[in-house]
Amino acid sequence: MANYLAQFQAIKNISDHLVIAVEDVSDLWPDVKDLFESRLPFKRACLNNKTRNPVSVENLPAEFILTTDSRLRSRFPQEQSLFWFREPYATVVLVTCEDLDEFKSILKPRVKLIVQNDEKEWFIVFVNRAHPSNDQASKMAKRVYAKVEVEFSTKKRERCCRLDIHGPEASFWEDLESKTMECIRNTLDRRVQFYEEEIRKLSEQRFMPVWNFCNFFILKESLAFMFEMAHLHEDSLREYDELELCYLETVNVAGKRKEFGGMEQGDDEAALLNPGNKPLAQIVQDDSFREFEFRQYLFACQSKLLFKLNRPFEVASRGYLFVISFSKALAQYETILPFCMREVWVITACLALLNATVSHYKDGHVAPDVEKEFYRLQGDLYSLCRVKFMRLAYLIGYGSNIERSPANSAALSMLPWPKPAVWPVIPSDASYEVLEKEKMILQTGPRVKNFGIQRKPLPLEPSVLLREANRRRASLSAGNMFEMFDGQSNFSDGSDVPANLSRATKAHAASMLRTNSSPGNFEGSVDRPMRLAEIHVAAEHALKKTISNPDLWKSLSSVEDFEQKYLELTKGAAENYHLSWWRRHGVVLDGEIASVCHKHGNFDLAVKSYEKVCALYAGEGWQDLLAEVLPNLAECQKMLNDEPGYLQSCVRLLSLDKGLFSTKERQAFQEEVVRLAHGEMKHPVPLDVSSLITFSGIPGPPLQLCDGDPGSLSVIVWSGFPDDITLESLSLTLIETHNADEGAKATSISAATVLKPGRNTVTLTLPPQKPGSYVLGVLTGHIGHLRFRSHSFSKGAPADSDDFMSYEKPTRPILKVSKPRALVDLTPAISSALLINEVQWFGIIVRPIDYPLKGGVLHIDTGPGLDVVGSHVIEMERYTTTPRSIADRGDSELTNQDSLPSNFEDVTQLTLQDSKIQFPDWASDVTSALWIPVRAVGDEISRATSQRLSMVDGMRTIALKLEFGISHNQTFDRTLAVHFTDPFHVSTRVIDKCNDGTLLLQVALHSQVKATLSIRDAWLDLQDGFVHTCQNNGRPSSAFFPVTVSPASKAGMLFSICLGSTNVTGEAEALTSESILNISYRISGDRVMGAHMPVVVKSEVNQDLNCDLVFKSALVLQRPVLDPCLAVGFLPLPSDGLRVGQLVTVNWRIERLKDLEGNTVPGEVLYEIDANSDNWMIAGRKRGHVSLSTKQGSRIVISILCVPLVAGYVRPPYLGLPNVDEANINCNPPAPHLVCVLPPVLSSSYCIPA
């Protein structure tokens, strides 16, 4: 069966559609051919896949071929069974007949003979030639067609259809397609079953010696190709996948490894997408195929089907995995393959996959995640191709033109060198090329970076190429060790020459260099190691023989072409990575593009790419990589005169870890920053130094301030500069925790601040802030003319480190400003009354509430009737909460009123200046008492009353305003009420009226102060009309002086007086005159408790301290009324008594007792009824006038209706005469009395009989 491989491939190349055989019984095909072929391809078809599930197929290609065609008749039976997929899938029998006899005798037997083969799927098309105008012919044609249906159609399957050649109906074509699809479907199912059975038989023999993979391949691919012809691409792809697995299983069987292939010309160019690259007969080997060609053939078939399925993404995905796995297979045979065959094949395979998948891909026709994954695969293919391309370029001497970046170093240092059996030998006529290579090597030096940065170049090779190449030379001997390394004395490119060679060995090596290093010296020892230039030239010549693709070789023919191809591959990878999930890969490759642009002076493009790379490295925290790229960005910015960008790059360089750069390099960074900051920048911009200057609060509790208070805030500023740096200004913004939009601002008080490397403590002034909790915000300032800002925060350094920094935002508040609250309290030191008209100590307790009062000033403003005695000193003393009662004080305090109680200490004497008092420093944070001498002025004389006067009568006010805090920004206002009173409250009453007209007047003295009063003397100055009965100068009848009156107690005195003559001419004055009570007393009290001995003022310093005080009170004495003018009597109530709810008449009788004289009682009398509304309801007028004759004995009765409301003893209504003095009225009964009110009578309507 393997002999048919060439024929099988030829059949495949020409068979790309299904075949439908046409059996032309009545020579009708020339007439209907065009009509039939116009229906191809079939627009819609329904076929069964391998699992017998219906699959809809569109545009199914097919071809109608006559059975007499040579393509169907020149086949042997064995070929027909082997290549069954190309046999017809349906047979259309074209017949016509004009009468029944002809049908029975000729047509019917011929058709029977044609359709007797059971393997054929057939149906009959009866062509009606009769013209529609010929009714007889049309009727006969219908009869014949009916006979055809009866003979060849069954109930299970309809096999006949009719075509009117003069006017075919649309239903015919639908019927034709339906019957054709039915035949194709049945044939396809039968053939699939046949192939599956044959494949199953061969699979069972897989591990037997007689098993032949070529036979299995022909059957398997025939089935796959048949599916492909039927547009069942999924089933075809599945068959190729199974075929690939079976082949790999066969190849990897131990002991059966055979020739790999890949040794022919052109094999270096991958044939992943070209199934017909080589005929199958050329790659057959015994009972199988060579792996190199056959695996590519299988993948090409798979990719062709995937493209037909419009799945370029899967082609890229499978292609990338295939390139990786096939590259590993090439590595196993690298010693027998041409030089660098593996690298060249991978490059061509990646490029082929990229071109094919991009051309077949349509944007927007796949899901977004699939699209991103497709671009990622494209980027991977570009990257793989790029790395292999750089390896080839390095081998031929372009290593100096490859940027030694971290990405390139990581890719190339992990990529092994080619491993040929023998390293290529340099041609004999290549001396000039070797010389040029050596010149290029000598002229190439490390590029000097900006700021004088010196770095060991990153390696681009897994090991030293010189050693690797010479090790693989067939004639290499253990010769000169140092000549193997091309005489290089400095191994800065990552070589691993033993460092323990003696100096003698090195000197000997130097002498050998002068002998064997000449470019044209090829006459030396046969075993002389190759020099590096010779290795490059030898590799270039070997590659020229390996590479068959002219475009690829052109890209390696010169440095310019190499860089152009290198940029093309790098840009392709970067662009696709940017469109995929892996944006970071794209940014890294942008850096490689930037390095090429930087090298050629395209600084604009280089800066754009470098900024992306630096942003990625900084965001990921890859500082080692950032240290490689950031100097290049700074250099480009400097060349573009981009001062702001260059300045920011210098700051970022300083912000990197200290170990990445030397101290000298870091100092160079700082010099550039200072130079630009103090220079004249055209467009100065704020500089962000968040990564270089950080700050934190002082460890400990936050600074506590009150609303409106300024303060000083100390912060720790960490400087990342290597040397001291001067800041022209420095300010700090604080952020309120609940409002990030508004914040406080602390401004530096110093003109310039010098930051040392590491930790610095800076104190800032803080203006008054709103209440709230504040955290650190932004640190701003100026370096020269440049404004900078930092918003990074640092934590306190541990004990073993002085430069520990963290960029976490602190949550601990640095400042707390309390809401408006009472910072101080001013309260009276006493609550009892002071003596009026006397100088008294008024105490004010000053209590700071968690706030210092240092430098406080108290403003005093007294109200009307109150004065501060400014000539006397003001005392301030420490206050404690242990008061002492007056009872505990001794008699010595009667003479020394200034002695201090035990709860006051640290007395300080102050003076009043412009109504202000300056507080001493010791009173800043302690509770103190301020004693101010005041005098309350009372012009009116005290009067004796039955009730004590209201406290408001002796009230005075004093307004206080305290200014305190820093710069006196805090104020506290309060108005205090001070109660002043007389020492005594006087009340009088006549306790007895003697027969001789003598009156005994009792005077009661009630103490109104919390002090002990000692009455030394008392006398009464009587008004006109009264005289004393005794010759004692108005003294009391019983004079037991001195009399001591304790607080809240009272004393009494008895005066004996009688009526005297009145001055008739001054009767009006006599009526308004008053008697004066004079009391001489002394007071013993404590200013802490209340009233005390008056303060001695400087102007009264000569006054006797033991002099008595005099208290005067006015008494009003009235002469008694001996005969009343009117008599008011309450008349008796009804005898049946009073009941609740019943009307009753209450009568009063008014009688004049004497004639009207002096208009004492007028003729018209005003009356008023007063009754408790809860007890009585009055019916009638409560108030009115009645006429009463002025003659003695005249009477009048006043009646009123009322209703009792409550039962019991209640007071009856009362008749009053408002216009008549009570002394002129004689009432009967004389005092209020009670009457009995009975409950209401029970109602019988509420009684229930028993």
UniProtKB/TrEMBL annotation:
It is found in: Golgi apparatus. Residues 17-316 form the TRAPPC10/Trs130 N-terminal domain. Keywords: Golgi apparatus, Transport. Residues 1138-1213 form the TRAPPC10/Trs130 C-terminal domain. The keyword Nucleus does not apply. One of its GO terms (biological process) is early endosome to Golgi transport. It comes from the Eukaryota. This is Trafficking protein particle complex II-specific subunit 130 homolog.
